[in-house]
Design a protein that fits this description.
The protein has 513 residues and is of the alpha/beta class. The chain has helices spanning 11-19, 154-158, 171-174, 190-205, 223-233, 261-271, 277-281, 285-289, 316-321, 346-351, 357-364, 372-396, 412-418, 427-430, 446-463, 501-511, and strands at residues 37-40, 43-46, 48-50, 53-60, 84-85, 115-121, 130-136, 162-166, 175-177, 187-189, 211-221, 243-247, 330-335, 402-407, 484-489, 492-497.
């Protein structure tokens, strides 16, 4: 561990210099800020200070899930005696590369990856009871991590929030069942158990950073948004958070079909036929990782999240309808061009609507001039993220405060190509981290959007309302029949009649039996 040292003149040296004829006193360099130290249950952490923000990175919240701990629930992290250097990210979780990622990881991924990071106001004392936000990254449950520059929690800490980001096991390390694991319940959603373990660590330790364990907002995007649905319905997560923000998290079973445990075990057996538990745990890390990424996740031998009865009890919309979700304030939404086009062939896209093809054409391409890429993006966005967000919001509305948003600001480059704000494009605005985005190049017009978006997320964490701070437009709660949405654009954020209403109604009508 390296600490900065400040060179200081002793009193005798200073006196001698002053006694020399014509001597001048050199101006001493300002002292570097002292490295911040925080004591958690496992031991002391030594972090770093930059401006008004202190950060602590690479904190183990569970034991390394390797060897005999592979494909087991996370176990407690070991204690350490000497102060632990917390100035660098820990490994992001094992994964195959995904070059198109808009938020590329900056560590060497590894199976030993159960680390989290904390940003806090540098001056915040222990037990200052500041609001806490816990970030769960996306990446299809096969890619991603906490190290991308756009996920820096510095802006949240600057604005009085303790920000925590966590890694969780991905791919087959995180979501795996196999007949050889039958004595352990066949396997399961280890990545979700990791998230719950991290939240328990937060409950036990965040007060040492100045955070309030009774005021924790969990938020995530894409796979992280789907994880929010899990946390809302899981009995294992009850009481670990007070609010939730779901960004592009789907909500219907069709977004990410989830097999039963028995079906997942058969999928696992296809990947590793005939192996017993010891042989499974002895497989090389690279064998388990394989080539599984966002580009190749639809392959045999990988189940993804499964209905295990303890983290996931069913589809998100069904859980919401059954009143299973935790009764906490929820903010939920999607982006205006939030889709993944499977094809850009317009005839093929409309063919999927069968007898409703003409209705779809009238809604999505009335003049026949919409590009295949924009058409594929819009139709998939409505089906995967936009309609499910409205459905979940309306379903939860009778029981708890719910706020529905649509992020509709797009940088000119994706706006021209995709017709709106693409999947995950809201994140540099939420984190106020445009400088960390790799592409496209930031432009001046974006910063006011980031200032506003970030402030709404901070307001929700601080007050339970995304309009709870001065200068924010009123944001009404969702009602069970609501047809409005809080639209975030270059002009600001306002509650409006949903411009996509006819399209969303059409999607919903096709889904309902």
């Amino acid at each position: 561990m390296t600490f900065r040292k400040t060179l200081m003149l002793s009193g005798l040296m200073l006196a001698g210099a002053l006694s020399l004829p014509g001597a001048t006193l050199a101006k001493a360099a300002p002292a570097a800020p002292a490295a911040p130290t925080v004591m958690v249950a496992q031991g002391a952490l030594v972090g770093a200070v930059e401006g008004t923000v202190a950060s602590f990175k690479g904190i183990p919240y569970a034991a390394p899930p390797v060897g005999d701990l592979r494909w087991r629930a996370p176990q407690p992290a070991a204690a350490w005696s000497a102060p632990r250097d917390a100035t660098h990210y820990g490994h992001d979780c094992a994964q195959a590369p995904f070059p198109p990622d808009a938020a590329p990881i900056r560590t060497q991924p590894a199976e030993d990856c159960l680390y989290l990071n904390v940003w806090k106001p540098a001056g915040a004392a222990a037990n200052a009871r500041l609001p806490v936000m816990v970030w769960v990254h996306g990446g299809g449950f096969v890619n991603g991590g906490t190290s991308p520059a756009v996920y820096s929690g510095a802006a949240f800490a600057r604005d009085g929030v303790v920000l925590v980001s966590l890694n969780y096991r991905l791919g087959r390390f995180g979501f795996f069942a196999h007949p050889a694991l039958k004595d352990e319940g066949l396997g399961g959603n280890f990545g979700f158990l990791d998230q719950i373990a991290a939240l328990k660590w937060v409950q036990a330790n965040v007060a040492a950073f100045g955070g309030d364990p009774a005021n924790v907002t969990v938020f995530g995007e894409s796979a992280g948004g789907m994880s929010m649905h899990m946390l809302l319905q899981s009995p294992l997560a009850r009481g670990l958070f007070a609010r939730a923000i779901i960004e592009s998290g789907g909500g219907r079973d069709g977004t990410l079909p989830m097999p039963t445990m028995a079906r997942a075990a058969k999928i696992g057996a296809d990947f590793a036929p005939g192996l017993d538990a010891a042989a499974l745990r002895a497989l090389p890390e690279e064998k388990v990782t394989g080539n599984l990424s966002m580009m190749t996740m639809a392959q045999t031998g990988y189940s993804g999240p499964m209905v295990d009865g303890q983290t996931i009890v069913g589809a998100s919309n069904d859980a919401a309808a059954a009143g299973i979700d935790a009764p906490v304030p929820v903010m939920i939404g999607a982006n205006s061009a939030d889709g993944f086009p499977m094809t850009t062939d317009k005839a093929a896209i409309f063919a999927t609507y069968g007898a409703d093809a003409d209705k779809a054409r009238a809604l999505y391409d009335p003049q026949g001039t919409t590009s295949g890429l924009i058409l594929g993006t819009m139709t998939s966005a409505d089906r995967m993220f936009i309609e499910p967000a409205r459905t979940i919001a309306r379903t939860l509305a009778p029981r708890q405060p719910v706020y529905l948003y649509r992020f509709a600001y797009a940088h000119p480059e994706p706006l021209e190509k995709m017709g709106g704000a693409p999947h995950a494009s809201e994140l540099p605005y939420v984190f106020d981290s445009l400088a960390g985005r790799t592409t496209p190049k930031a432009i001046a017009a974006e910063q006011p959007v980031a200032d506003l978006t970030h402030k709404m997320w901070v307001a929700f964490a601080k007050t339970g309302r995304p309009d709870g701070l001065p200068g924010l437009a009123p944001w009404p709660k969702v009602t069970p029949t609501d047809t409005t949405v809080h639209l975030i654009t270059a002009a600001g954020a306002t509650q409006v009649e949903d411009p996509y209403r006819a399209r969303i109604d059409f999607v919903e009508q096709r889904i309902k039996p």
